[in-house]
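Entry 14. Ran structure prediction on the chain below.
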Amino acid sequence: MYEDARHAFRFFLKTLRNEFGTTFVIVLTLALAISANTVIFSFINALLLKQQPGLERPEELVDVGGMRGGSSFDQLSFPNFFDLQKASQVFTGLAAYIETPRSMSFRTSGHAERVWGVPVTGNLFTVLGAKPAAGRFFAPEDEQPGHGLAAVISYSFWERRFGREPSAVGQQVFVNARPVTIVGVAPKGFEGINYTRTDIWTTVVTEVFHTQEDVFNRGNTFVFGIGRLKPGISIEQAQAEMSLVSARLEKEYPADNKDLVARVVPHTPFAVLENGHYGYIGMLFAMALLVLLIACANVSGVCLARSTVRAREVAVRLAIGASRLRVIAQLTMETAALFVAAGLLAVLLALWLNDLVSNLQFLLPFPIAIDLAPDARVAGFMLSLIVLAGLCAGLIPAIYATRVSPASAMKEDPASFVFRPSLLRRALVVAQVAISLLLLVTGGLFSRAVSFAGSMDPGLDANNLEAISLNWFISGYGGSVSGNLPLEPFEKMLLQRVSSLPYVDSASLSVDVPMDGTAVGFDVMTIPDLRGDDDRQGVRNADWNLVSPGYFKTMRISLLRGRDFAESERGGVAIINETMARRYWPGQDPLGRRFYRGAVSEGNVTEVIGIARDTNTRYVGLPAEPMLYAPLTQYSWPQHYLMVRTTDGRSVVPDLRRILLEINPNFPIVSVQSMKDLIGIGLLQQRVGAWVATIMGTVGLILASLGIYGVTAFSVSRRTREIGIRTALGARPMHILSFAFREGVMLALAGIALGWVVAFGLTRLIASFLFGVSPTDAFSFGLTSALLLAMTLLATWIPARRAVRVDPMEALRCE
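Output, structure tokens:
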């Protein structure tokens, strides 16, 4: 076996020297396919398979949420959680936490910074079995009214912000403009329950959090539970107890708990991923696997061609006593050498791609802390992939090569023996073309969706426009909330200071920004005399945006009719967009019309004073929805956007930091994005899909073209004598050219036909990611097919030209 391995390695070096171009392309594409599959598996491994650091016996942990009317796993209200906690007999402990980290301000001295915080119940770390890296975790008194506020910080934040100084524990800082004492540091590596990066934990019931949420409202669902089962208790037993408690709570609180059942499931570390995200990751994984299949098919095709050429060699080895099994092993190891070389290169590519993926996390709406570093599981996956792919690519050609009869092969003339059309090799080429078509069509559809979205008029001018997110709650402002600073004077001063900067064209405030993927809703509307299909005739919904005067000027959203808000207006007026005007007042003039916020009985009359041009409200590329603009002072909302348009495109952030420090050092900037970047982030999935599918499809196209070239070139080289005879008998060059072209073109057409069938079925799975483009878009299918045909003609033209130039005398001399 050792000698066979040495022979295989020498054969690989000989092939690399004699056929460097082809061998290099095969190794590179194999490495790219293996590394792409490894990176995606590394992501899946980090999310779902790796054990979370800092947890004790994670197999005993379960997640507790709510299920209403057969719905999926959802959040609980804090009062319901508290009742479940008190009644439970199956857990050694049951804790609650907020699923997604919240923006919080953090200040020791100087300017406040934005950090990510998670409110939890005080027993969370005890339930998890975590051990503090420094200090302690929450004690029962930390949740008592009147007691000093406490916080636990993450190890990475302790390292980044305090340089791991022990004096950080016990230090008083300001969190959300309130004095808080750091009591402990979480274990190293522990970033949060759901791998969302957390800087600081506070308790749910302290004023750091509960003035932002109506914590004690039983109908307000915002927490998940996590519990540790007692020894010997199964999930089924825990679910039975939770169902009994849920039934009792439904009887006691029927208004809020109708059909609500507490659900117990095994703990999963990334609950924030929805089914659509898993499907998207699966799609990327599938594309990487398809490229690997193309590469394996190409290697198999090359091996099949070589096995035909080496048929006499194989026959001789079998004739002198070599076993068929040993010859198969020898030929398979020769193929495996290609995969070993590709695997070594794939390791380097995978490490580079892991770093690239990690650096893209800033595009997410909240930070995630996942460890993409390869471990034994990733190494095993890569090794298994290399071994299985090598076996699949090399074993079948090896078996095919050893089917030769030694006696027949030794008797047969070499020239007549070496060419036998291989149905298997042709099938591999057809499969390559079909898979390449599928990948290229997918890339084309994503690219068309991005192009379509980019060509649409968003209804505003995104040039030189910044959206700066500010959160007044975390900075100590709260309007009418007792003990908080009044918000309106601060915002007026802020707008005045920013607007007075010499390079600022205009500035305004809003609670929402177009095309950020979200929508804000406050009240339903009741429109008098409007007929409806439901029982509540005249009741309609719309997306809301609360804006300051001058917002439409800053955004350059045209006011088609009517006027802007006045500084003195605080309610009772609204500006609507074109879609809302057409939908709710068709064929009428909406100006001056009145409707009610909420029910008519509430008496909140609102008058339409203007009609604004439509904008893409949620994502660029999606049609506009009914939009209602109201004065900023009408509702109390924690997050505002400062929209700033500059004259020269520079960022206002440096001057804004100085202004905020002078007005209130507890006021951090939550996030900063240009309007162009915000529009681009909305298309991130489409751009990534187009990029991955196009690269994978291009690689597949090159490999498929090489496969067609190989089949045609091999056919021409093995039929040299036949072509010479045809030429000697008077065949014209066009006939020889057609003869040489026929096989490659027929294989390509068969692959395109198969690819159309497959693509028509599978591209429907990505329909939800395509804006304004059909999953069976004729342009994408037609352009891809034309590209494949063009590459086929190029791949067959080179050997076909060689066939036309065959000298009949030279061809016949081989007799």
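Residues 282 and 509 are 40 Å apart (CA to CA). Will compare against last week's run tomorrow.
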